[in-house]
Specification:
Elements: E1 6-7, E2 19-22, H1 35-49, H2 56-70, H3 75-88, H4 96-120, H5 133-142, E3 146-154, H6 155-164, E4 174-178, H7 187-197, E5 205-209, H8 212-220, E6 224-228, H9 240-248, E7 253-255, H10 261-268
The structure holds magnesium ion (MG).
Magnesium ion binds at residues 23, 25-27, 210-211.
């Protein structure tokens, strides 16, 4: 079998690492998989109604472009850009926070079946975890890692979803998400704060994420990082767009999921 693990930095390993920092959505959790297909039409429709002569395909391409560009920051920034696009076409946009609420309502409608199925036990938590994720968390725990969860999703939702997936118990360092005051929160600030306030040096961090922010932050302080280029929801192959962004910020390794557990562990801890 061809290895699924792309080694980008053959010199790197995690033998000095003592802290693991995980992103949540798309890295561990698949509860919110498909959010893109909720957000894009929500924005295309009102833009189309402005009848600027742009076709639905053209507007979809514009929206997909800026939504993709802003992925990894908090949702509000995508809404700020959406409002700017409306304004550019002569409309009077609402406060971007209103659009964020509208989007979260639509998304919660979209994922409520998954949440309900987890609550009732009809879906096993591992069905909505990136393949191999729990086994990796177990391994890191057994190796004595201090573990943190850092997410751009609103903190109360993220914590509830981590609990439903029964992964909350791993994160003895803490589980941190976005707060309402978006101006004083960014994932970048959050991760910098975690690193600063922990008793560990930057080079003792091992990061896992499907977004560039978490990988970039860990690399900036001298840690090592695994880019998780999940093609949600299947997570079978490497998502080329994610891969490109993760490689761009210096991920040491890129994986499509955590199925190649033993191989990954051997690479991380030679
Ligand atoms: Mg993510």
């Amino acid at each position: 079998m061809v290895s699924q693990i792309e080694v980008r930095n053959p010199e790197a390993n995690a033998s000095r690492a003592k802290v693991a920092l995980f992103d949540f959505d798309g890295t561990i959790s698949l509860i919110r998989a498909g959010w893109f297909d909720v957000m894009v039409p929500m924005m295309v429709e009102p833009l189309l109604e402005l009848k600027t002569g742009e076709s639905e395909d053209e507007l979809t391409a514009i929206v997909e472009e800026f939504v993709g560009q802003l992925t990894g920051r908090q949702t509000i920034y995508q809404m700020i850009e959406f409002a700017a696009q409306l304004k550019k076409r002569g409309a009077k946009p609402l406060d971007p926070v209103e659009y964020k609420h509208r989007y979260l309502d639509l998304l919660s409608e979209y994922i409520k079946g998954r949440i309900a199925a987890l609550e009732s036990g009809e879906t096993h938590p591992d069905e909505l975890i990136v393949p191999g994720g729990r086994r990796l968390l177990d391994t890191l725990k057994q190796r004595g890692f201090t573990m943190y969860l850092a997410s751009g999703t609103d903190q109360p939702f993220m914590r509830a979803e981590a609990k439903l997936l029964q992964v909350d118990g791993y994160f003895d360092g803490g589980m941190f998400g976005a707060l309402d005051d978006y101006k004083s929160f960014s994932k970048r600030i959050l991760i910098a704060k975690i690193i600063r306030e922990s008793e560990y040096a930057g080079k003792e961090f091992l990061g896992f994420g499907d977004g560039f922010v978490e990988i970039q932050n860990v690399k900036e302080v001298g840690g090592v990082a695994v880019g998780v280029a999940t093609d949600e929801p299947a997570c079978e192959n490497v998502d080329p767009v994610k891969r490109e962004r993760l490689a761009g910020v210096g991920a040491d390794w890129i994986v499509p999921n955590f199925s190649a557990h033993d191989e990954l562990v051997n690479i991380l801890f030679p």
